[in-house]
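Incident log, structure service

09:12 report received: a user says their structure output differs between two submissions of the same chain.
09:20 pulled the input from the user's history:
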Amino acid sequence: MSPFDKDPSSRPQDPFELWRQIYDTNERAWSTILERTVNNPAFAESEDIARLGELIVALEEKVDQLDDRLSNIEATLRTQASAPPHAAERPASTPKRK
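09:34 re-ran on a clean worker, output below:
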């Protein structure tokens, strides 16, 4: 005989009720803590610092990309400057007469 057999009103109606209560209590606690943290002026400052860091990293990546592109352009110009002129660029010669 179980304890629930003596008093049917003490039998849980929903087997997940205890889990829901734990979940709700935990959620309220975390919600309160997070709300205090987000509304704290120091949090906004750290958020601003994080955003500034992201902008600096993005700028650094763009500068690196520009540097790579400039290096490629310089290498192409050096190659073209040291290559012999193409036939199309040579002045047309007059045909030799026989």
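09:41 both user submissions now match this output. Likely a transient worker issue. Closing.
09:42 reviewer note: The helical segments are 3-6, 17-39, 41-82. DSSP finds three helices and no strands in the chain.
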